[in-house]
Amino acid sequence: MKKIVLILLAVVSLTACKQKEKKGTETTSTPTYQLDAETVVVNWVGYKFTNKAGVKGQFQTTNVTNNQKGATLNEALTGVEFSIPVSSIFSNNGVRDAKLKSLFFGIMDNTELLSGKVTSVTGTNGIVSLTMNNETHDLPFTLNVQNNTAYLKATIDINEWHAENALASLHKACELLHTGEDGVSKTWNTVDIDAVLNFIK
Hints:
By secondary structure, the protein is α+β, with helices and mostly antiparallel strands. 25% of the residues lie in helices and 38% in strands. Helix 3 packs antiparallel against helix 4 (164-173).
């Protein structure tokens, strides 16, 4: 009888130890982030005149794929792929939009879409592999995170994608409109991108 009692006590003791050990090794669940693909906003600013006056607009459609969850916002953004129909360009000026579609993007090779992939994000910096004019190049960007929203900023040099012909076509069509008070007509080869990315946590 005494042996049975000792065995029962030993079993109870081992069970209690295992429960304590299990409680001690429990970890809190890691929060996960995922890009809210439905709310992505991509704004752009082109420039005219020698004093670099901005012309603002937006791409009203951004399609997102490979949208994975990540333990951090940066991790969730890395690997995201996107495509933007150039037909969705909007600058609140129908005549300008038509010129951009036909006389700028329309001159480029195979550019019904702007497409790319976020290849890396480290801290507040990252790289997008951007395809335009049938060429793919790295586009560096900066990231400013506020709560669960990231503001991505980048500057595209049109010449890096060898789209000088498209830029010249647009400039010719807008030559008078892009002539400043100094009498010089200028269409800049740089376009600033400002994307607003919301994340679901």
